[in-house]
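Hey, resending since the last one bounced:
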Amino acid sequence: MSLLPRVATAAVILGVGLGLGQWVRGLSAWVRTAPARLGFEMMGIEIGLAALALAIAWALPGRVGDRLGLRPSTLPTGVIVALTVGTLGLSHAVDGVLKLTRSLEGSVIVGISRGLDDAAGWPFVVAFFGTAIAPAIGEELLCRGLVQRSLARWIGPAAAIVAASLFFGWLHMELVHGAVATCIGVYLGLAAWLGDSTRPAMAGHAANNLAALLGSAGVLTTRLPLAPAIALGSALAIGALVWAWRARARPPGEPRDGDPPGALQPRPESADC
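The structure tokens again:
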């Protein structure tokens, strides 16, 4: 497809996506519960971000799926599960540090958590799609997909991960929330790079936000003291990254755990290329 049709199609995708996102956000005015209002509001925003990522990827040369990192991950399933658990561990560790330093006071993180208090029934379902599923798709397509993978072609993976994570933090529009998002964004960026796919980052992002929702709803609680919680969360995150690195660093063609007999693996240097 030539440049002009690509750009025209991208403009249609963006227009439809932004329009749909605004319509979904408007649904928040018709509900009475805070979790449902927050869910519709965030869902609309994330639809717009996903449309932006898809539109730009469509307008640029190359395959849209490759540019956004939608291919299956090169990592074994067990490693992806470990990275997802590691995301939860890192988030818990960061949360512990913020509690120790009292940095959470007055943060928008507290406001979001209170807005999801005691979510149940259909408001919980709306909040689930709005705060867990939609951000994992919209923000990861834009940050770990479009931004990180595109920048990696020009400035290398390490700088691209940092830049995409800072952009991810900026999207949250508040100092403490943005700092937390940046820290977790670096981890998600590493997961996406090691697996040559945004799918591990999406899984970790969704799990992290779901855990936060369950915590606000009173379903999930942790009782570890802050110091052990920080140590355990950090260990889970680091251990998962080490396992992912070892799985990625195997020689080309060597089967990985869980692969069918005779399966060949892509070369490790193909990540984020």
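Confidence is low (pLDDT under 50) at residues 251-273.

Sorry for the duplicate.
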